[in-house]
Design goal:
heterodimer; A: alpha/beta; Rossmann fold; 46% helix; B: alpha/beta; 13 helices; 12 strands; globular
């Protein structure tokens, strides 16, 4: 990746991260940890890899994104807003009564959202079906399935993975957000998943790549490699940190859903927003 | 327009075969139709589709939740999926998938739940569903049909293939007695008055429509005039017809191969109660019990779902 492109994607990631913090703080609560850990992925997808048209969200030749870990909607909405799918002001309506931006993605409400998710595990099958449909139509399109590490407690994910591997749905790029934590604690303590890499290989994914969850260049390269791998199933594991990008939130004991209800937490958010703002201003100058 | 068969003692084509042959024929001209099976092709005759349309026959393995979710994804891509598994797995096992990935997400999935109620036969209580209609009724936008015979089932499959949304149809896999003459057509959401009568109104659906017609004949022999409605669309329910035909009757009985809780009988009861129809009413169905193993005929008797049982209920209510 050339330096200009890396700079652009780093800037986009900063904007998405700032949006996430701003909209969750504005709302006073929300799924911060899992939103922060997919910020760099969203920047790579919407800044480089995805074939989408914000002016025509239903474009027939578009790539698809299924955010199966639906509670990370705030990160997705921020990316969609930055890309121009809807005005950025809309972000602040998250969870308002009847808003187009519910906490969990809804394909009937939000431009750019192709599948409704939130009941964990279900997006995996939907992504498999979308990818299957793309193949049936003989189209050269990709479906990006973003699934959480905690979400992989759900058996339905593994049913979907069997189908994706058995039918060689190489166009369905499975991305596991391995941020190590779920609502009740560390994934290894809640229900030890052991090795996702070994599990995915055992399930028939013949290209399993592990990259740092906040490494833009590595994520993008892994997606390039997955796209070029046509003979079997593709998986990318994001080795990341829940709450990624802001030390305070990374270290916060319970960071799955955060309430902005005390001075300390509000200051941490404000400081992070200010720092990101300065960075963005400097980069854009 | 429908016409009743001349000979109700004759059976038609096995119902699973009707579904699969009808679909396979439709798939010849409609490239958006796809069929998903959860390792039951050998039991459902969907081998017909597998042979005729190998690309659009999707073998899911024994993974019903994934089957429904995959169907939802195919719908996102503009396909019109039909899926099959046994009734209990087609509804209660995959309810959240059908509800969220399907209905809530405005996707299209046509669900064939086979062997409802006593049709589970030798598969027994573990494979019996007497709550599938209750579950599906509570799902917003879902359409529910219970086919009386092969002629009606073929019409239902064709109708669903042309529609968007969540459509559930339940039917025996085996052949059942004919009710309708070939070529009969129907209207979704409209009940069919099969026999007019003055004393009792019997509202039924599914393969036991023919038993209800037998019961009407037996009652006639005893001087009781029974009217039978085939309410093959259980949702949306033809409330208008119920209220119209209830007028002047001495008794109303619902008759279904389903629990009396939440199914056709409950739906009829809601209409009667909310419209202050003060006519004696009884729900005749599986009486809040689990299923059992046996042949279909034995189970129909065991759970008191025969024509004679219906006659007894009607006479009891008229006393």
């Amino acid at each position: 990746m050339d330096k200009v492109e890396l700079k652009e994607l780093t800037l986009l990631a900063a904007k998405i991260r700032k949006d996430v913090l701003e909209l969750l703080k504005h709302r006073g609560y929300g799924h911060l940890g899992g939103s922060m850990s997919i910020v760099e992925l969203m920047a790579v997808l919407y800044g480089k890899q995805l074939r989408v048209d914000p002016a025509n969200p239903q474009w027939e030749d578009r790539d698809m994104v299924v955010l199966s870990k639906g509670h990370s909607g705030p990160a997705w909405y921020s990316a969609l807003a930055e890309k121009g799918f809807f005005p950025k002001e809309k972000l602040m309506t998250l969870n308002d009564g009847g808003t187009m931006l519910p906490s969990h993605p809804d394909r009937t409400k939000t431009p750019g959202v192709d599948m409704t998710t939130g009941s964990l595990g279900q997006g995996t099958s939907a992504a498999a079906g979308i990818a299957y449909g793309q193949k049936l139509k003989g189209q050269d399109r990709y479906t990006y399935l973003i699934v959480g590490d905690g979400e992989l407690n759900e058996g339905q994910c593994w049913e979907a993975f069997m189908l994706i591997a058995a039918r060689k749905l190489n166009n369905c790029i499975v991305i596991i957000d391995d941020n190590k934590r779920q609502l009740d604690g560390y994934t290894k303590d809640v229900l030890n998943p052991f090795s996702f890499e070994e599990k995915m290989k055992a399930f028939g994914f013949d290209l399993v790549q592990v990259v740092k969850g906040n490494d833009i260049e590595a994520i993008s390269n892994a997606i390039d490699k997955a796209k070029a791998h046509k003979d079997g199933a593709n998986c990318i594991i994001l080795d990341g940190i829940k709450g990624s990008g802001v030390k305070y939130f990374e270290e916060l004991k319970s960071n799955h859903s955060v309430k902005f209800n005390n001075d300390e937490i509000n200051k941490a958010a404000d400081d992070a927003i200010a720092a990101l703002g300065e960075f963005i201003e400097k980069e854009e100058a | 327009m429908f016409k009743l068969t001349d000979d109700r003692s004759k059976k038609g084509t096995p119902l699973a075969k009707v579904v699969m042959q009808t679909l396979s024929d439709l798939m010849n001209t409609d490239d958006k139709l796809v069929f998903l099976e959860a390792d039951l092709a050998g039991a459902s005759s969907s081998t017909i589709i597998q042979k005729d349309h190998p690309e659009r026959f999707i073998q899911m393995g024994i993974a019903e939740a994934n089957m429904i979710g995959t169907a939802a994804g195919l719908s996102v891509e503009g396909f019109k999926p039909f899926v099959h598994t046994f009734g209990p797995f087609a509804t209660r096992r995959v309810y959240d998938q059908l509800y969220l990935s399907g209905a809530y997400a405005h996707n299209t999935i046509n669900v064939y739940g086979s062997d409802p109620g006593f049709d589970a036969g030798p598969n027994g209580g573990t494979h019996t569903t007497w709550e599938d209609v209750a579950l599906m009724r509570a799902m917003p936008t879902a359409v529910i049909c219970d086919a009386a015979d092969a002629v009606q089932l073929e019409w239902i499959v064709k109708e669903f293939a042309s529609m968007k949304g969540i459509h559930y149809f339940r039917a025996n896999r085996k052949d059942v007695r004919n009710v309708y003459a070939p070529g009969s057509t129907f209207q979704l959401g409209k009940g069919n008055v099969l026999t007019k009568g003055d004393d009792v109104l019997i509202i039924t659906a599914g393969q036991i429509v023919s038993d209800a017609l037998d019961a009407a004949e037996k009652l006639a022999a005893e001087g009781i005039s029974a009217e039978v409605i085939d309410m093959f669309t259980i949702k949306p329910l033809d409330a208008e017809l119920i209220l119209k035909e209830a007028k002047g009757k001495k008794a109303i009985v619902s008759f279904e191969n389903h629990s009396i809780i939440g199914g056709l009988g409950s739906a009829v009861a809601e209409v009667l109660a909310e419209n202050a129809v003060g006519i004696p009413f009884k729900r005749h169905g599986a009486n809040d019990v689990f299923g059992q193993v046996g042949t279909q005929d034995w189970l129909q008797k065991e759970f008191k779902l025969t024509a004679d049982d219906l006659v007894a209920t009607v006479k009891g209510l008229l006393k």
